[in-house]
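// run 5 | inverse folding | seed 20
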């Protein structure tokens, strides 16, 4: 039986991993709701309305960033999963001070579970950005790019197909 693309599970698993970070009050994922929040035991759900301060949200990528065929039956998909930590409105220096401890917290936590609860082959945070605020009309956020590799084995056999 072929493996299936699991990007929805990957997104929710990234939210579940983020939920374990000190200072994260809530974590949401925009996947399929099959991964459990490690604190509540409830399924990871999509956010409803504006996020509360210190809320993590993992979103679905628009498309794969790359597909590499390793053989006739094995492929590796690279996903760039957008993740956001929302905080309270503040002046820019205060925002930067608020975000400062989260760089290390996110890097450290995700380095301890690079398979995202068994949903991916490899996942690493590869970038940060600061955005939002009054000019954008969005709550301020620390944005992250989670680069995920997912390997699929389609178990194709040469020869005519029999269905």
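// decoded
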């Amino acid at each position: 039986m072929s493996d299936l693309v699991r990007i929805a599970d990957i997104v929710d698993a990234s939210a579940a991993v983020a939920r374990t970070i000190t200072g994260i009050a809530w974590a949401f994922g925009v996947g399929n709701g099959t991964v459990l929040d490690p604190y509540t035991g409830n399924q990871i759900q999509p956010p409803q309305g504006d996020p509360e301060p210190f809320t993590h949200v993992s979103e679905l990528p628009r498309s794969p960033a790359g597909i590499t065929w390793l053989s006739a039956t094995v492929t590796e998909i690279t996903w760039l999963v957008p993740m956001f930590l929302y905080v309270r409105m503040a002046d820019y220096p205060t925002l930067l001070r608020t975000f400062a401890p989260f760089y290390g917290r996110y890097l450290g936590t995700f380095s301890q579970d690079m398979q995202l609860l068994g949903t991916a082959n490899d996942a690493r945070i590869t970038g940060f950005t600061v955005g939002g605020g009054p000019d954008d009309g969005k709550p301020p956020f620390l944005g992250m790019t989670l680069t995920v590799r997912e390997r699929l084995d389609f178990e194709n056999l040469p020869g005519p197909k029999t269905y």
